[in-house]
Queue: 2 jobs
Job 1
Amino acid sequence: MISIIAVSNELELMTNCSLDELQEDYIKWYWIDFNEPTEEEIKELDHSLFFHPLAIEDCIHKLQRPKLDYYGNYSFFVTHRLNEAEIEKEEINFFVGENYIVSFHHLPSKEIHDTWQLLLASKKLSKWDQYLVLYHIMDKIVDGYFPIVYQLEEALDQLENNTKDQTMEQLLEQLFDTRHYLLKLRHTVIPMRDLVYRMLNSHRLRGIKRKKEYFSDIHDHLLKLAEMVDANRELTNDIRDSYLSLNSHQSNRIMKVLTVITTIFMPLTFIAGIYGMNFKNMPELTWNFGYFLILFMMFCIGVGMFLWFKGKGWFS
Amino acid sequence: MISIIAVSNELELMTNCSLDELQEDYIKWYWIDFNEPTEEEIKELDHSLFFHPLAIEDCIHKLQRPKLDYYGNYSFFVTHRLNEAEIEKEEINFFVGENYIVSFHHLPSKEIHDTWQLLLASKKLSKWDQYLVLYHIMDKIVDGYFPIVYQLEEALDQLENNTKDQTMEQLLEQLFDTRHYLLKLRHTVIPMRDLVYRMLNSHRLRGIKRKKEYFSDIHDHLLKLAEMVDANRELTNDIRDSYLSLNSHQSNRIMKVLTVITTIFMPLTFIAGIYGMNFKNMPELTWNFGYFLILFMMFCIGVGMFLWFKGKGWFS
Amino acid sequence: MISIIAVSNELELMTNCSLDELQEDYIKWYWIDFNEPTEEEIKELDHSLFFHPLAIEDCIHKLQRPKLDYYGNYSFFVTHRLNEAEIEKEEINFFVGENYIVSFHHLPSKEIHDTWQLLLASKKLSKWDQYLVLYHIMDKIVDGYFPIVYQLEEALDQLENNTKDQTMEQLLEQLFDTRHYLLKLRHTVIPMRDLVYRMLNSHRLRGIKRKKEYFSDIHDHLLKLAEMVDANRELTNDIRDSYLSLNSHQSNRIMKVLTVITTIFMPLTFIAGIYGMNFKNMPELTWNFGYFLILFMMFCIGVGMFLWFKGKGWFS
Amino acid sequence: MISIIAVSNELELMTNCSLDELQEDYIKWYWIDFNEPTEEEIKELDHSLFFHPLAIEDCIHKLQRPKLDYYGNYSFFVTHRLNEAEIEKEEINFFVGENYIVSFHHLPSKEIHDTWQLLLASKKLSKWDQYLVLYHIMDKIVDGYFPIVYQLEEALDQLENNTKDQTMEQLLEQLFDTRHYLLKLRHTVIPMRDLVYRMLNSHRLRGIKRKKEYFSDIHDHLLKLAEMVDANRELTNDIRDSYLSLNSHQSNRIMKVLTVITTIFMPLTFIAGIYGMNFKNMPELTWNFGYFLILFMMFCIGVGMFLWFKGKGWFS
Amino acid sequence: MISIIAVSNELELMTNCSLDELQEDYIKWYWIDFNEPTEEEIKELDHSLFFHPLAIEDCIHKLQRPKLDYYGNYSFFVTHRLNEAEIEKEEINFFVGENYIVSFHHLPSKEIHDTWQLLLASKKLSKWDQYLVLYHIMDKIVDGYFPIVYQLEEALDQLENNTKDQTMEQLLEQLFDTRHYLLKLRHTVIPMRDLVYRMLNSHRLRGIKRKKEYFSDIHDHLLKLAEMVDANRELTNDIRDSYLSLNSHQSNRIMKVLTVITTIFMPLTFIAGIYGMNFKNMPELTWNFGYFLILFMMFCIGVGMFLWFKGKGWFS
Ligand SMILES: [Mg+2]
Ligand SMILES: [Mg+2]
Ligand SMILES: [Mg+2]
Ligand SMILES: [Mg+2]
Ligand SMILES: [Mg+2]
Ligand SMILES: [Mg+2]
Ligand SMILES: [Mg+2]
Ligand SMILES: [Mg+2]
Ligand SMILES: [Mg+2]
Ligand SMILES: [Mg+2]
Ligand SMILES: [Mg+2]
Ligand SMILES: [Mg+2]
Ligand SMILES: [Mg+2]
Ligand SMILES: [Mg+2]
Ligand SMILES: [Mg+2]
Ligand SMILES: [Mg+2]
Ligand SMILES: [Mg+2]
Ligand SMILES: [Mg+2]
Ligand SMILES: [Mg+2]
Ligand SMILES: [Mg+2]
Ligand SMILES: [Mg+2]
Ligand SMILES: [Mg+2]
Ligand SMILES: [Mg+2]
Ligand SMILES: [Mg+2]
Ligand SMILES: [Mg+2]
Ligand SMILES: [Mg+2]
Ligand SMILES: [Mg+2]
Ligand SMILES: [Mg+2]
Ligand SMILES: [Mg+2]
Ligand SMILES: [Mg+2]
Ligand SMILES: [Mg+2]
């Protein structure tokens, strides 16, 4: 669907202009939103708006990283919002010209919807222009990254303390997934950060220079996010190493205890074997208290070994 | 084979010029393609086209990385296409001068063939020049990298989930191979990216400056590729670590269970050994229910140890 | 609470001005401190002092990294003090204008309190201005980082030598915590270092340029801190690796000794088993000294194996 | 030995000038080679050629990295050739002045010998100057690195596939040695690359600027070498990890099989032990087919456990 | 102790001037050395020499990294000498002004002592100035780093080949210590390198510019040192990994052999157990050669298993 808001020189909002009417002189600036456009509607980018074929290709394809391209008298932005439910990137593209902004997205965007309503409800229309629209949308996009990072941080917290009493396999798999999400997040946050940095320092984007404080604020958030993502990736490393080493240590300890038990019984069983031999001439067998003596000897050997191993610390 | 396309000032395509005829005034620009050249044909680079011996050496030898050299009034490019079947680099070299492009390749190149056909079939000959030829070939070369990365990503996906139920050895070997391919890919993608970056920012390549959007588009793709390759290399690390730790954990678990079983039978066997001793005077042996008592005792000890180990969690 | 110190042109200290009075001509410069401000007081940032809404938002929110923003005729700083007891960041914000400094903090700050007292007690009022206030507070904030790093270094020292005779699990958990603290510290020290670097090199902060030596001294300390934090993080790596390898080596050694003992008794028990068989015709059983011969043989085998394993070094 | 070639203004080669004669006006340019110089000959650097004491010190000492120093009207280069037999660095130093080059080396250098012969046999003397001498020697030095890298790559190939059927210990030691050689190679290739980069971009070396294509060609080779060395170092990491994990996995598998065997025999031996007990009243012992029943029971238990373990996959 | 050397305009050495006399016109330049100064003497830095309080603070405190600060008409340097016996940093500070150098150190310095003697014994006083003093001291300081690196390299060599036949624990602890020393060394060498680099490129240090070759020589040495330290740190990594993997492999091999022995005896002992059972009706027991048949069978099983395991390579 293509929606249009135009602001006239008299600061009146018009929401039912046609694409052709937008070029009229009484239009101060306008915003066209391509929301889940049909193939027919996409063609308007070329036929009515005359954008460069490479930029249009970038709109259509899903392959893009966040970036900024200059084309003659307009700029083209690719940004990524994050779908909170599935931590999946969704591309939003912008064309920003002298007196217009065109937003383009294959999937519905809460950020654009909210900004649209904000503009419709605004009482200070004189303050708005296409760059303020861009700021509001990007601010909301970046604000939308935080809940996802918080969610991952919380997951890591739970994994660190294993509050849900899960098995090793489950913990490792979740940790692996969390690392994977953080890697994907990184590939959104870092290029977004670089994009906003370029916007702030570009000599061609005068409108952004005038609103420098606003876009700086977004840049701050992206710096913070990049730091959080990297710190959390390091944390996953630490958590995994700490898991594995504790687990292997525990496993070793158990094997040690079991083997100590086995080792204590070996000589005892051997002694029992000796007196189970059927030699004709075995004096001990005929002693009256031979059995009890041997039992006592076994007891001593068993306890002795136990104490010896315990003393060496092999039992804990 | 040496093939030639020349475009005359009247925008007529000529495909049967000789090398000598190309210098005539009525030629606007031309493209010479050295496809699997013979030794004789290679000598034309020197004798007819007068290129620098070092550039010709770079054409002949296989040692080169993607790069850009300036020689007086022409530039020399080394690029790498990838052979999809074997993930093997194949060098394609270009000489780009004031009104010509010379392409040189020891192996047939789909990219050059397709661009050649595109030019032959073009209806807007006025739009073409040597830089547009270069753009189309490089665009196709870089587009040719993606299927290979996708193929490796898919292989990693299968390895991650072990959909083919392979043994540890097979998985590790395939992972090792995948890492190796990614490393090789990296050594193609990174220098290509740097090459295109230099092309975009060079003060000597006016023709590229005029088509900046086109070469920027290639640069975008190379940035994306570099990111994908690096992310996938990180992923192989994660997959391997996760394999190894899960495998070693599983192996530990099995050993633990086996050792617990052994440990439970040790004292039982020992007790049986005791009553197998042949002492004359062993009161228990003569008790009427001695045997059943001992059997019951063994049963209790066995079950007791089993429960104790189970309670300690050593059995899972 | 809002506290105010104003210095008049005659270098008199005034501590009971109202916010409105500060704009008078006879005020040379002033310092307003927002210490644990109420919601009402926070509104003064906007109503009386007219700061930019984004800067005020940064004051209120806890999300910030240390940074420096320029707003028209004042600059806005975010800094982090560290709460020594819990190694927790606490934000302190500054607005520095032509003839004033405004400090803002949600939690009480020893650094600000001490500087306040210093200024009240100062006898050379002519030397003071808003930048000297800023210097003194930041100097104290950064000096406050050192005890924490020293504390962590001491903890690492104790862990390295395990002076408290702790178990592996305890050691690893403490090491993990120390790494975590160092990571958090890093995220305070690095942005603070970059902030002071920007202050030193900014063309807009003339007052800091004039006191360059002072802020350079803070920068030195931050460089030193960053180096210490990184070196200590590397040290935690080394300590953990050295723990784990020693522990695993020790564990292996114990298992080896236990298994050697088991292995020595295996053939002995087997021999005893042989002569425990009940075959009718077993000549050895009837020999007069068969039993003692076999005992001696067992002794030889046992000692032989022991010496053989010892010779191979499998016993230590 | 000190050898001299001088070229006169009439382009005649003179090979028996004395050091003093070289300053004459009819000499266009000259090359002095210090090949395995005696202490006496080394003094000529100071007495006859008046080079700076620090540069002479750098000639004599073995401590140097490849580098470039400017001294008034001459430049001083330190380069490293590699002794192919032992992968050992050998320093070659150059002084390059307005009309001369001085080469200095403690050990004989094939590169210098070959260039010397090339110059003696040259028919286009007008093309030669001191920079062409420098180019030819450095080109040969850098070409001499390749066989060593190829040799190491081949060694890695053999190690990867263990074509020689070596034990783990031998493989690991060879891998360790290969890593060590690669590290040493890296410390030659990286500073040489940086040296040639500086030569290419230096404003003081006009002679090199004029031969830019030639020295760029060397730079290409060094870039390629640096990439190969780094990739091979990464490969050694991968090979080692893959060794160790496969080996440990195999070792685990063997232990598992052995332990499974042991575990199967434990209960069987225990049962045999039970019926080896000497209780008076053991009804089973008197059953006619008790023995065969028990044998059959043991067989069932053994096979059952075997199948059970096999079913669990603990046997492969 | 405060020692003074002054050089008069007539190039006469004076060693017994007072601090006050140094300002006289007939003094060309002078050197004041604060060697293990008392608290009283330290005060002269402020009272007689009027240095900046922050620089004096840096002299007194031990916290400093090597660095360079500019104060009006003098520069302040912090450098680190290394105490060879304990590999401990010792700070030496310099103030370098228009016609003086002041050196300050809490501990005696061989480097300063030697330079002092060199100056006293010099016959070419005209060549000396404060920068030559600085060069000589810094050259000696940096030369003093080499023996320590060589010492560590030798220690690594011995560890690599375990020439002293030490246990694993001892080797690992020494390796850990060596890593620690290298890390400490790195924190001296890297800032010293950066300091000398800044000295070489500073626009404010004209005296150093004039002696550029000399300070470049020191910079060379520091570059070399940084490379050696980093290479040696990588080497410690390699050595440790190679230790651990060889050790663990050896340990696995031993366990395998022991377990194979145990596994061979398990079925034999079981068979002996069978014929130790007391069933009434066990036909084999009454066979005339049953015993010898069973013995032979046991021998066959034992040898068979041994050969089978040996064939599988589980015995080496
Ligand atoms: Mg798109
Ligand atoms: Mg925001
Ligand atoms: Mg906001
Ligand atoms: Mg903000
Ligand atoms: Mg971090
Ligand atoms: Mg990462
Ligand atoms: Mg080629
Ligand atoms: Mg493309
Ligand atoms: Mg395309
Ligand atoms: Mg594109
Ligand atoms: Mg890599
Ligand atoms: Mg990445
Ligand atoms: Mg790594
Ligand atoms: Mg705040
Ligand atoms: Mg301080
Ligand atoms: Mg201080
Ligand atoms: Mg870190
Ligand atoms: Mg200081
Ligand atoms: Mg470090
Ligand atoms: Mg030398
Ligand atoms: Mg070459
Ligand atoms: Mg070449
Ligand atoms: Mg060549
Ligand atoms: Mg690489
Ligand atoms: Mg490396
Ligand atoms: Mg000091
Ligand atoms: Mg020196
Ligand atoms: Mg020297
Ligand atoms: Mg030197
Ligand atoms: Mg290195
Ligand atoms: Mg390091």
Job 2
Amino acid sequence: MNEVKTRRAGSRERRSRAPALEQLPWGQPQTPFPPLEVFSAEQIDQIHDTSMRILEELGVEMMSAHARTLFREAGATVDDVTGCVRIDRNLLMKTLATAPVEFSLTPANPERKIQIGGRALTFGLVAGPPNVSDADRGRRPASFEDYQNFIRLAHHFNIIHVIGNQVVSPLELSSETRHLDTYFANLTLSELVFHCTAIGRARAMDGIEMMALARGISVEEMADDPSLLTIISVNSPRRFDAEMAEGLIAMSEHGQAVVVTPFTLMGAMTPVTLPAALAQQNAEALFGAMLTQIVRPGAPVVYGSFTSNVDMRTGAPAFGTPENALANIASGQLARRYNLPYRTSNANASNVVDAQAAYETQMSLWAAVLGRGNLIYHAAGWLEGGLTASFEKLVIDVEMLQQMSRLLMPIEVNTESLAFDAIAGIATGGHFFGAEHTMDRYQTAFYHPMISDWSNFETWSEAGALDATQRATKVWKQALAEYREPEMPADRREALMAFRDRRKKEIEQNGL
Amino acid sequence: MNEVKTRRAGSRERRSRAPALEQLPWGQPQTPFPPLEVFSAEQIDQIHDTSMRILEELGVEMMSAHARTLFREAGATVDDVTGCVRIDRNLLMKTLATAPVEFSLTPANPERKIQIGGRALTFGLVAGPPNVSDADRGRRPASFEDYQNFIRLAHHFNIIHVIGNQVVSPLELSSETRHLDTYFANLTLSELVFHCTAIGRARAMDGIEMMALARGISVEEMADDPSLLTIISVNSPRRFDAEMAEGLIAMSEHGQAVVVTPFTLMGAMTPVTLPAALAQQNAEALFGAMLTQIVRPGAPVVYGSFTSNVDMRTGAPAFGTPENALANIASGQLARRYNLPYRTSNANASNVVDAQAAYETQMSLWAAVLGRGNLIYHAAGWLEGGLTASFEKLVIDVEMLQQMSRLLMPIEVNTESLAFDAIAGIATGGHFFGAEHTMDRYQTAFYHPMISDWSNFETWSEAGALDATQRATKVWKQALAEYREPEMPADRREALMAFRDRRKKEIEQNGL
């Protein structure tokens, strides 16, 4: 049913009269800048040393007996009564040494392959909100139709490279089988690498098997040429959930990428001071990263950071703050100390798509990019501290991400770009509008915005005096109208449908 | 009349019931980061070489005969028929060598002294718009009352360090004597260093004399301990206005700071390519800087950049674009090549205080700060490409500037901030809200926002669902209510009034 509707939507003719949306071509930006640093090497060593003391003296509570066994066999000190796992720093460093410094993820369409690490940036779609909002229908619980529209937009906008964990939670679908519907949507409505839900082994395995079907290769083949990533959260302070551990183990066993991200709001899950928050985050992230290398040495793993502050007057989380930006920068220093790719985020805490949403997002985005975040999660569509995915915010974020991407492009300095002759050709006080040097280059010289309106006040007023958020409504609608569903061989599509339907029945009968 | 009203306003009791606005204490942020670089040293040399060819082979049209004489006497090649001044690169470098690498400016209250250069950042109030806007009265031509209110706000908000050229043009006042009223307002409603209008010698001299009166020192004494700055624009490409040259000469003769800023929109006043725009900007800025050192070796001078792009489809100026950000970064590389302090800007082209205004402003602000802008002009209140000064935008900019300032503050890493014992004291899965380490620090641990609202959606909705711009209206009104006019000795105030009134009569009778 759903897929029939979807295919018809995908193949209908575009109705809009507006010119097609202009956007940058597909590709990952490569940063030319050296990473920004908040702390000196000595200060990073102090934070590292505190992390090592946390792991050696305090340990982490690992709630999965299976994972505890793996840690014990690897040489860690395990207490099965309390669940506490303690790790010597030398053992940790030796185990982490097998982690790759960078790796690639290949989806069904190899043209949408991405590189995680080095100078490459990867921007991810917002992930996880229970609510959705747009100008027409306001804020509301998310549906599967909302979910599918976000996937279509992520596929349509070239600057979005990865689909994160369920962009919104489609609340009308059973929580036990929802992952099968969302995987199917990811694989048929987009061609992007996506996040595989790793709450327990079964959901991870379903994602791995479905991606292998979509690629037309075996699960074993995919272990050497991975396609998927997952975010493993830590219940900070120092507690690792059993289901998350099982999901991590399944992903790493199968060579898929694991991003270990402690959720550490300063003042709530960590002390209020940034060095302490980073020391704790670091201990927790490395603890999870070690487990991936115990399971499968060489398995792709990413150092995740999600450290921000809370409003100490109310306990509310805050994002895009100076403290959040500092954590985005400093966590990159830590990740690079261990030669791990680095995941950070681009978040804000505004309740509405306004100036606050934009300045907080730019604050965290600049810090994430200059801190050399390799995977910048929640980069498009995040609103309200992550409780809402916004269609308007998504489009405004796409604009900001494209601008950032353009900023990072290399600039040639040569006779043509220095243009001495063009300068000599214009009289003093004249202008360059009609110069040949201008005419030859004007169409590509500058970034063409999707949202920004530079018309004068009178023109802008006559056109309805729309602000950026109102213009964004038009753009996401136009993008959905222009969206084309990617081609997929019929046999693979049928195999995916059959898998999804079979697993739904199994789960309905036997549980997950 | 005016001053009586003003003093009453300044001494009235605050009526608002809201708690007093919280803000950071007065002070200039010091950047801990190395300057970001867009170009390699070799590329900067190529741009430099092109600038030198522009000055040697093409020259700059200097419309002031007086200035041409000064250039000729200094060794430049001058054509009095065309006005063309050509400068050999060795002569230029030798003349520029006397310029100070940094300097300070001292206003009437020495506590508001500022440093221009090095790691210090200076944020300036928006300067120059003909229009003003606020939520209550919309967009309209500016009045002197608007002017005065902006000066009050600049004085009230500690993060604003400098008053730029007439924040708005008070259109009901005579254009010939307006500068006397605005200088008087600057000196009595604020204690800040300000911009002295240097369109012709007379306006500059009036500012210098009034500041000396306000400080209670002589004009000669002030030459060794300067107080004022001016922006000297260039009519790019390669034309230097006579009035501007006379203003520059007057300021430099009296040891006051001159900021030479070519207004160079790529595609209009320069070629479309960034290296060419920078080469031309560089030639023009150094040309003006050289004149300051001819007039008075050692006079304070700042390298100014105002390079952005136009919308090539309409010719409209754009700000806060990737190209503008690149220019903000690269121009700092050029300024430092000549050991000159660097002026850049924090601009946007939105017609309204919306997400675009915020993301463009953050884009240019981050580039200005990381490009090591020493003087960041138009940092608070600029809207609509500089055609409007906005009360709401000013407050949102103050929030962004304070956040940036907080980001740049040094962070201590020590036993207390690493807080191993605090981490050890909280059980796994617990929280730090009530921990002693938290309680001892929670009031100062994080930046307290003035505009950002982090309350949850329900609380925010019940409070009226105000967006950031609507909240900004409340904040500037509260700031005006909290504003206190600074004290000034009665004799100095009277001397200023007498000077203003005498000069008004002279100008009315004899012209400027």
